[in-house]
Amino acid sequence: MKLKKRLLGASVATLAMMGMAEVASASLIIAEPAYFVRPALRIGAAELIDGIIVNGDTESTNSQGVAGYSESTVNLADGTVKMYSEEYSQLDGLQTFGSFGERITITGGAGTYWDMNFELEGALYTEGGSPIIPGGPPPPRIFYDVGIAVYEAGQADWSNFVGIANDTDDGIDPLLFEYSFSVDNIDSSLEEAFYDLFAEVSGSIALDTDYEVFDVFAFTNVSVWTDFGNGLDYYEADFMNTASFDLQFAPGVNAYSSSGQFMGLSTPPPVVNVPEPATFLLLGLGLVAFGTTRRRKP
């Protein structure tokens, strides 16, 4: 729990009372559902085709056939994102995106670490050989990325952690932010080409107490940057092999999710009633709380 420095001179009873009140506040946070799935698409520089679902279905697919074809499926239960796009002839360049977020409650983990990773695997097939317009558009490329962010519960949600532009809220410092991206050139002079693509991030959160609540976010993008006249006739970006999230806890640690489905984690047990303020003084005698700084795993 966190106490401001100006409160450290308060009486022991007052500190105890405030500590119990903070636990009560945290219990209210835990009781609230806080999860989302967000499959999204973009055609060229057009507006985002957003499929955000908050505190509802835990699996959603978003697709379009206006320019070529693209789709994105986000499944919170197994922590996966599937993406696919293809275009023929005059290419606009398609972006597929997927993200999800979940509130995680962890008990009995003091002194251990919560480890996590998120990896993306896919393939790009291209056909080229068309004339390249002198002084025309730049050569085609493919951009792909993966990211993980972890915040104290209630500090960020889908609206201020976008992920599509890889931008956390500048006013909020995450406890953990891991990000990896690649931009690979596409050889449009080849009649056929095949590329294997892979990206991965991992990180750890140190658990300071036996009662912790976090919001975790994971996101991934695949975007083909191309335009008419750069020699590319067709591409297929197949990431249906999924971007996959994984997490691990030490033996004996209990973890829960607000959706009751994320990675097999059930909902937290019912919140125990908080004692009345008068009882705080009796329970808190001798209890002193100090602010802590969370550390990543060395």
Automatic annotation (TrEMBL):
<keyword id="KW-0560">Oxidoreductase</keyword>
<dbReference type="Pfam" id="PF07589">
    <property type="entry name" value="PEP-CTERM"/>
</dbReference>
<keyword id="KW-0830">Ubiquinone</keyword>
<dbReference type="GO" id="GO:0016491">
    <property type="term" value="F:oxidoreductase activity"/>
</dbReference>
<protein>
    <submittedName>
        <fullName>NADH-ubiquinone oxidoreductase chain L</fullName>
        <ecNumber>1.6.5.3</ecNumber>
    </submittedName>
</protein>
<feature type="domain" description="Ice-binding protein C-terminal">
    <location>
        <begin position="274"/>
        <end position="295"/>
    </location>
</feature>
<dbReference type="InterPro" id="IPR013424">
    <property type="entry name" value="Ice-binding_C"/>
</dbReference>
